[in-house]
Amino acid sequence: MEKVVITGMGALCSVGNNVEEIWTNLIEGKSGFDKIKRISTEKHDTTVAAEIKSDEYEAIVKKYWTRRQLSSTTSCTRLTLAAAVQAIEDSGIDTENCDKDRVAVLMAVADTGFEDAEREKPTNMILKIMPSAAPSLISEKFGFHGASFNLSCACASSGYAIAFGAQLIETGVYDIVVVGGLSDYVTHDRVTGFNQILAMSANPDPETACRPFTKNRDGFILGEGAGTVILESETSAKKRNAKVHAKLSGYACYSESVNMTAPMENGEGMKIVMERALEKAGISPDKVDYINAHGTSTYLNDKYETMAIKNLFGKHAYELSVSSTKSAIGHTLAAGSVIEGIVSIKALNENIVPPTIHFDEPDPELDLDYTPNEAKKREINVVLSNSYGFGGQNVTLIFEK
Known about the structure:
10-stranded mixed beta sheet
């Protein structure tokens, strides 16, 4: 069975327009939160989000796709294309001379963001609302003939995509899989919907609206962004002498099959998916150094994820580091797994744990090392990254040096 490595990474979000910029700002404890500017919040309970602050992605995609092609896309789709370009460029793949039948494209797009401002110019509607637009355009541009499709599993979407992409490589179907994810932009429908189920914070202060693992947390905050990783067989990577960021040594997907919006009691499903990912990797729990937690800042997630970690890792739970990337960039929905996976890989290679910022009053029920407010240097050889989506969709990814 082929081993899977990561040879390219690209991302854009509220704290940066590329992987290095995002990483630098995260370890410096910078926040992407601010008052929502994309839409009027007059009729909304939530007034804070982590919005994209630059249109740099537009310049990136204009180098690769024609004006006519881009006119059939939403801003969100173009953001996804930009992250994919960054990852492909980072990988050093010879897109002209590689075996294009052996390259697949798998994107995690729950929604293309065809709402609000996009509807003011209702042209090419069919293509704009098509979730598979991004993988299709990527395949078309680079001439990749492997499978090109979209996967949607709520907030675990890009983690599921990485897991399935890895299987396609392990079983020898493809040598390379371009895997990415997209977060829909802040829209009236999105804010209204999450407020209706009381999932998002109504705190109007950007500095305290999202506080994972703290006593006074009251919900997540939307984050905008996109990310892409290049999964490649170790054989292919060695053959072309590629730079390798990390090894994807384990993964697991698990459907809790209990409730559409609430996790299994006491974090049992969260524990199971982490346990199965470790089994897949052949790694004992005491070898994990850092967990990039789902860490949404909702009451149940943070409580149950902590319980799951303690139940699985035992006393080692107090020796490993935990943090939530969402404390800085918000919940990037379908892009969450891949962006947080990229952050996990950077932590692995830099031996630095990014902090959980906005951490104020500790919750007495939650007593792990959540890396409060400041990054921490420590040796990191194994990272575990969690994502949990509505519908009971759980995924855990494990990266090794």
